[in-house]
Each structure stands twice: as C-alpha cells, then as structure tokens.
Amino acid sequence: MLYELKNLKKTYGQRTVLDLERLRFEKNKVIGLLGPNGAGKTTLLEIMAFLTRPSAGDIRFEKELIDYTNGKLIDLRRKVVLIQQHPILFTTTVFENVEYPLKIRKIHKAKRKKIIKELLELVGMEIFEQASAHKLSGGETHRVAIAQALACFPEVILMDEPTASVDVENQINIERIIQKINLEKSISVIFTTHNMIQASRLADETVFLFEGKVAQSIYENIFSGHIEVDSKGYKYCVLHSGLKLRVSSQKSGLIRISIDPNVVKLNQNGSSSSMYNCFKGTLIQLTDEQSKVRALVDVGIPISVLISKEVFKSLHLNLGEKVWLNCPKESIDVF
Amino acid sequence: MVNALMDLLIDSFLSALLLIWSMNPELLMIVQVSLKVSATSTIIASVVGVPAGFLIAFGTFRGKRLVITVLNTLLAMPTVVIGLLVYAFISRKGIFGAFDLLYTQKAIIIGQVILIIPIITIFTIAAINRIDDRYRKTALTLGANVFQTALVIVREARFGIVASIIVAFGRVIAEVGISMMLGGNAKGFTRTITTAMALEYDKGEFALSVALGIVLLILSFGMNVFFNYFQGKARV
User: Fold this and answer.
1) Where does A222-334 sit in CATH, by number?
2) Is A190's Cβ below 8 Å from some Cβ in B?
3) Do A74 and B145 touch (CB under 8 A)?
4) Complex prediction ipTM
5) Residues on chain A touching B152 (C-beta within 8 angstroms)
6) What residue of A is the nearest CA neighbor of B145?
7) With respect to CATH, is domain A3-215 assigned 3.40.50.300?
8) A67, A143, A149, A268: which has the fewest Cβ within 10 Å?
C-alpha cells in the first residue's frame, strides 16, 4: 500500500476543505483524482506531497505513520514529488532547472549531465537545454517540470491538473509521458483532473472528490441540496437550483446526490413509466463515447445521460431540441 | 547680475572638469574616503539587513506588523538625528566614549549602517513578498531542505535585493549629516564628497564643489548602469 489516509481533515478557519474518512492508494498505479473546482483535489495532493499538514487524521506512507513533529519530512519529500497545476521554473536555463534536484542530492557532475540529457529527451525538450526557462510556453514548462520531477528519482509523482493549461499537442505529449513513466520507470502517478474522459483513458483507478469528500462509485451528475418531506411522507431532495427530485433515503438535512447517467431515461414526448422525477430540458451537447452517446441536457442544471447508439439513432436527436428526462429513484444515490 | 552668475557657473563647471581630468589629488582623496566609508557601511548593513528582511518576511511571530511599521518609520529618520544619537553614545562622556570613535571613519560607518539597515531590510521584505509561493513549494518538493529553499527564494528575489543595496549605497554616499557630525570633516581622513562640497560652498570655492558633485552623479549613474546590465543579462 502506497498511501493510507484515515479520518483526514483539512480546515482553513471555519471552512473544511477536505474530510476523508478512509482512502487508500496502491503502488505502481496511475490514479486519477476527479472532481469539480473546490473539491479539495489540490489540497489532498499537497498533503500527500508532505507540503501541507492536515488539520486532523492520519496518513500512512508505505505503511509508515507520518509524524509531522520529528523533522523527517525531507526524507519523505525525496520520495514524492508534486508537479503543480501551473509549474514555475527557476529563472535560469532549462538545463539548470533539471539539474537542481540532482545537485541537492550531490550527484556527480558528469553523471548529472547524462541524466539531464536522458530526461530532456524523454519529455522531448532536448533542443531547449540551454534556453531560458521563463521563455517557454505553458506546455513546454510543464514538460520541463516533469523532467525536473523525474530527476528526483521519485517513487510517486503527484500531478495537479497536468493538462489543464496546455494546448492539445502538449496534452497528448504529457499523457504519453505519464503512461511511459508509470510503465517503464514503475513510478506511481496520482493526478487530478476534472476531465472524466482523460481520467478513464489514463488511470487504472479513479477516485471522485466532491466538496472535500469521496463520492462513491458514480462520479457524475453530483449536486448538493437538502431533504424535504411532503404531507404524504415522500422524501424529496431540493437542489440549490430549485429542482426537486424524489429520493429514498434515511438521511435528512443537507445532502449530496449523484444521478447515474446510465439509468436516466431520455425521450422526446414526456412519456414515462414513472410519474415523478420527469423534467423537460434542452439538449445542449452530444458526445460520442465508444459504445454510447453522452447527451447533456439542461433542466435548470446540466444532467449527463448515457444512451446506447441504437437508441440514439432511433431518437434522431438534434441540439437545441426540447427533451424529457426521467430519473428513477434507483438512478439517484444519496450520500 | 544674471550674466555674472552664469559666468560663475560656467567657470566653475569648466574648472571642475579640469580638476577631474587632471586627477586632482585632493579630489581623489575625498572620493576615495567616500567610497571606502560608504562601501563598508553598505556591506555591513547588507549582511545584517538582507537576512533580517528574509526572517521577517518568512517569520510568523507576534509583533511582526509592529516591527515592519517601526522599520518603515526609520526609513524617514533624518541623518542629523542619527548623528546626534550616535554622538551621544560615542562622545567622550558617552557609554562607548572609551573606544575613541568620534571623528573617525568608524563613527561615520556606524551612523550610516544605522541609517540604511531599515532601507535594506524593508526593501528585502518587499522583494521576498513579491516572490511567487510556488518557488518555495517547488524547492521543497524537489527535496530541498529549509536552508536550500531559502537560497532559492533569495536567488529569485535577487534583483529586488540588489536594488535595495544600490538604493542604500546611494543614500549613504549622498548623505551629509552623519558624515559631518560624526566624522568632523577632517581633511584626508573623514572628509567625504558631501562634507567637502558643503565646506567648499561655504568658502565660495565652487570648482571643487562642482567637480565633486559631478563625481557623485557619475557614481550614481554607474551604479544604475551596472544594475540594469545585471538585470538585463540575467533575464536573457
């Protein structure tokens, strides 16, 4: 086991940004941390990089319980390296940037040169060796930051939104590098993203975070709301947008729900086997996803629906068209 | 009347250029004393001020805001007040009277160090506060210890820190109150560019005064040219 987090909390003043009951990451895997902005992904990475101390809870790294008071964090930091969402390089050359971690590890000059050459080749930046680091583009900076991280010979590389601020060409390059370093160098990679397609393409495992907590299994259509009970005793979840969904749950007060896109039904005439949880909306996006088609429907909030290609063909859907969504109770998970 | 004044200025300016061109020994001696005293006080103040600025910028301690406010106040401290204060300590009747420091170059240096420590400290704090926190996180995650991380931050803040040292040097080489009150303007010993200029002005000898003024401006210009060159080269 690489990481084991237990009852981990991080608070800033009154605000809890991370509240994880239990989370485990295995070695030598590529793990994707999914979640919207503000889900606590960056905070979690900084805690796992031993740069930020949690407010409460335990972290075990390679089974060893982390003690923040014994001054041994530097040894741990030398096993784990974090590449920030917008990496910053020192105001010197690309070569010297990659050389820095080698220098502080007191690696001999001749060996340093050889390693730097290899790493810059790996990330496709060898021709920029003597270039000024601050003149590189966002994607190039990211690639040099990866080389710099690899120069630490880490066991784990943590990457915060590795492709969020780079162009498509660099995105492909970075994804290729992630796969390569995991396969060839057996380095565990934990990366954050809010791109589900990227996570499913790259990661062996994905963990979804929402408002600082782990959302179980389904990591789409997550919304916050509160429980209301009507005069007949039926429970409803009222979302912040005002949308009211009938749910079956023992919980009360503030809750979060996820709606399984595979179970939600989409039709054009409002006909449904169920009398409740039917919403009229506008079809705003259609995406081809291997055997299925993802339809995004705006019903006051955007809800994602996965439909089979056969159903898609039979419906003759057009963007901007008014459609009906039916969310049966079994499609809604309350947590 | 106006013509006579213009003639005097032109004459003084030409005589001043001649003094500089001929490397007048008296002028050279004054410039040498000024450079020696100012450079020494700037080095001492830098050794104290830069680490102090770093510690204040990064430290989390009670009274941090008060310390910064006091330092900001000290930026506006008149040189004559520092002169008076140091005089009280090093005059024969003062606590350090036994060291016989009054009217020596050391006395000027002490006063000037007090004058510019707040400048270097405050400008270092500002330079370090401007540095992106990602540098600190990057250094730490790459395996740097606390000292190595501090060096990274100082290196990234180097332009701001060098600028603070240049400002401080400019302040001491151009100040007159401390040099006059604590140095005593002794010829060949504690006579600096500014005290000599004041004396020559009193005597009505404008040539040397103007020559020294030109040297002062050239020195200041040279320092700025050097700084801009250093800054430009480092950013290529």
Assistant:
1) 2.40.50.100
2) no
3) yes
4) 0.74
5) 90
6) A74
7) yes
8) A67
